[in-house]
Amino acid sequence: PAGRAAIWPRVAASGRTVWPDGADALHRPVYTVVDHGPGWLDFDIFCHPGSPTCDWAQGAPLGQQVGAIGPGGGSCPDTDRLWLFGDQTAMPAITRMLAETRGTASAVLCCDAADLGALADDPRVTRCDDLMAALVAMPDPVGGHVWFAADAARTRAARSHLLARGLTKTQFTAAAYWSRAEA
Hints:
Elements: E1 10-11, E2 17-18, E3 33-37, E4 40-43, H1 52-58, E5 81-87, H2 91-100, E6 104-110, E7 125-128, H3 131-137, E8 144-151, H4 152-164, E9 172-178
Parallel strand pairs: 5-6, 5-8, 6-7, 8-9
Antiparallel strand pairs: 1-2, 3-4
Helix pairs in contact: 3-4
């Protein structure tokens, strides 16, 4: 927490991780590592109002101590056909899955064209302005896996849509990467 020395998690006698709570509670967002090397990690932060991570990063944190845990998260779905949908926050994970998939893949990203970077040259990637409309327009994902990541509200809508289309929970992943600040 800002202005406080970090109290790091500890392992209890039972082997369970005990996280600090109350005023010492740590902010524990999950990020996809884009690249790494000895002593450094590269990850992207999607800047949006009200984010403790954004506030920290914009406050020139050079030299500050940071805790990192991992690996975590999921792996690339093992499937013959992979449909990926995401906003800017999902770009590192989508980039990784496009590189790792053994099957055919397509990705739809809801972001500014300038934010696509190297993905702009990948013929499997298209950009959209409405992620839910792109998901609704997707052909039936027979024999494949649908992966969706965006803000919590769109992720709930995507999950409901995919279940309504008859997909089972093993045929898709719907991950909320962030929440919109309520006005």
